[in-house]
Amino acid sequence: MKRRTLTFFLVALTMASLLATTAILREDTLAGIETIDVDVKLAPNQLQWADEISISLLTVGPGDPLYAWFGHSALIVRQPNGTSIMYDWGIFDASQEHFYLNFARGRMYYYVWASNSEWRIAEAIEEGRDVRLIELDLTAQAKWALSRYLGEHISGEYSTYLYHFYDDNCATRIRDLIDVATGGAFGRWARAQSTGLGARSLTAAYMNHRPLIAWTLSTLQGRRVDRTESLWDAMFLPQSLEAAVAAFQDENGSSLVKSATVLATRTTPQRQVRTSSDLAAILALTITLLLVLLWATDSDYRRIVLGLAYGLLAILGSLLLFMMLYSDMDMTYYNLNILLINPILFIPAYMMLARRRTSSPIITLFAGATIILILARLTMAALFVQDNLATLVVILPLYLSGATFQRRGDRKALKGRHRST
After folding, report:
1. So what's the pLDDT on residue 363?
2. Residues of the chain under the 50 pLDDT cut
3. Same domain, 145 and 284
4. Which range of residues forms the domain containing residue 49?
5. Are the C-beta atoms of residues 16 and 8 closer than 8 Å to each other?
6. Which of 82, 97, 157, 178 has its CA 20 to 30 A from that of 317?
């Protein structure tokens, strides 16, 4: 009775998570950005000074730590007097109070930092990453207005902001400033172009060199990352921002690029790029081979491995359920994966680890649902707003191995063992 009550509660909570959202408390994207006047009237001496200001887009390629997988963007402002300041967003401090709790809740209070550009560039080069610089071809008035804005606002009360992976990161803020500097022409041009891809596909090439981490991050994200992105939205990726700046031309055919310089090229080996389909196939095949080997040996090993696997999936499902119900991470909302990866899996995990069972009716139900969803995805892909095929393919062999139709084989093996003793 207790087990049924617990199962009913978990099922109800799981279903509720598909409909629930939390209130997202977003702070201003760029405080006072509307006050930037790129047509400001300048005195002759101011105009001469402004004309000599240099504003450049710095792009740093992907690095080895997880937080650096997607690269980094920054703006560098060089004044005629020789000062060179680098402004970059997306800076975090893991020692910040309640940092990890806030991160799990989607309330990531990150920083914008104004620092000396020379040592920051040297630091990126020392990390063995690609480092490229594009000097922006802006009007003197636009350079004056942007440099004044950055100098006045990137300090004190505006140094902290609420970060978002796709909507408000190191690249999107620079994108917004460049749009203001071009009088909105950059945004109009970029919004009119579709990438034909969603954020899940756009980010895959940056993550698939670490298959398990990439699969986990993809599983935690719902349909939000599968909507087709315009070029404007795709510029949450630093390299997409750089490519868009290089390709842009306004109505008069003018470019944003005054000069482009490669400061350093990656010194570490290039990552092996795999598609999401290849990634799912590799993980599924690895799991299947492991289970086949276990099937040929002792059933106790299979029971333990399956129990641990379901326990890990239950933990992942619990994290997903928490983010869907209590987090501001909107990319996790309306995630169909919660139907198949959720806390209910703690029940079969416990049964297998503590009660020496190698199959479960719950896993049978999940296996059948997984097969149905895979067939539906393959035959009616247009009806699905979430691309979770990679998730389904990987969990299928785990669920098939723990389904109740395996009991007959287990009983035969058990009988043979008793006879031999």
Report:
1. 93
2. 23-29, 156-158, 409, 411-421
3. no
4. 33-193+230-264
5. no
6. 97
